[in-house]
Design brief:
Blueprint: E1 2-4, E2 7-9, H1 11-33, H2 38-58, H3 62-74, H4 80-96, H5 102-122, H6 127-142, H7 146-166, H8 171-185, H9 188-193, H10 207-220, H11 225-237, H12 241-251, H13 259-280
Antiparallel strand pairs: 1-2
Helix pairs in contact: 2-3, 3-4, 4-5, 4-6, 4-13, 5-6, 6-7, 6-8, 7-8, 8-10, 8-11, 10-11, 11-12, 12-13
Organism: Chlorobaculum limnaeum
Subcellular location: Cytoplasm, Cytoskeleton
GO molecular function: microtubule binding
Length: 282
């Protein structure tokens, strides 16, 4: 017998408890020492590559990100997430190229459209797939002209509506919807120019809706330069100079998250200088 706090515990009880603890520890060690099965190891490696590619993208190392994403494709690890990230990457590369070099931009936009379509094809329920397909279609059409905008308008709007149906908190989709409504508000001139002979339904959109869309995007993600810049351009179009200046000054305080943000910041600073002088002269 063993004395503990004036109580006697038989040796067999102590031995039994020791055996239970020993058995538990042995089982735990065996589980931890078992090799990871092939599927788990493959999935872990796949996630590591995607994580590394995502980090390269966030660090603005676009070439490295592109190489890593394409490693996944070469290994047959296709997914909607992989393709919408490639669409986003190609858009980012195109947008970083100076607007005057249009011919250099177009191949990147075209690849972004292809990747976006592939993402939607693989998973129609992936909100980001629809967002980045819409962005690719819109940006490509914007660089081609009014007729292409009209041809693409219905598809762009459909993709944005689907993206926001799946994820109402997608700030990129709201920002692109703002751009869509702003651009569509300018298309009326095309129909008038054609004498009302344009065949097809004219898309609908207004500056009022565009303003709401941009403000919604800002409320969801106040760190993105594009949201403020595009809102400011709308205000400038409406001769709302003080509001434009306020939006531009806010944009100038935000971090560079894309390479194209550096280009936007240069334009933003020029606009701030111009509007400040115009307002001071009043």
């Amino acid at each position: 017998m063993v004395q503990m706090n004036n109580a006697s515990i038989p040796y067999p009880a102590i031995s039994c408890r020791r055996n239970i603890v020993t058995t538990f520890l042995t089982a735990l060690l065996l589980m931890l020492s078992q090799p990871v099965d092939g599927n788990t190891a493959s999935k872990s490696n796949e996630n590591s590559v995607i994580d590394a590619a995502d980090q390269a993208f966030k660090s603005l190392h676009y070439e490295k990100a592109d190489s890593l994403y394409n490693v996944m494709i070469q290994d047959g690890k296709e997914s909607a997430a992989l393709y919408w990230k490639l669409a986003r990457l190609n858009i980012s590369v195109a947008e970083a190229i100076p607007p005057a070099e249009r011919e250099k931009r177009m191949p990147w936009y075209s690849k972004a459209v292809d990747y976006g379509r592939k993402a939607v094809q693989l998973d129609d329920s992936n909100a980001s797939a629809h967002t980045w397909l819409a962005a690719a279609l819109a940006l490509k059409a914007d660089r081609i002209g009014a007729k292409e905008k009209l041809n693409r308008a219905a598809e762009i709007k459909r993709e944005l509506d689907r993206a926001l149906e799946l994820n109402p908190n997608d700030d990129v989709a709201w920002s692109m919807l703002g751009s869509y409504n702003f651009e569509v508000s300018k298309i009326g001139w095309f129909n008038r120019f054609m004498g009302g002979t344009f065949v097809g339904q004219m898309p609908k959109g207004s500056r009022e809706e565009a303003e709401k869309n941009f403000k919604k995007a800002i409320s969801l993600n106040p760190r993105v330069i594009r949201h403020y810049h595009e809102l400011a351009l709308l205000y400038i179009e409406e001769d709302r100079k003080q509001e434009a200046l306020n939006a531009l000054r806010m944009a100038a305080t935000k971090p560079v998250l894309m390479k194209s943000d550096a280009r936007r910041l240069n334009e933003i600073r020029r606009l701030i200088t111009r509007l400040s002088k115009e307002l001071e002269g009043k």
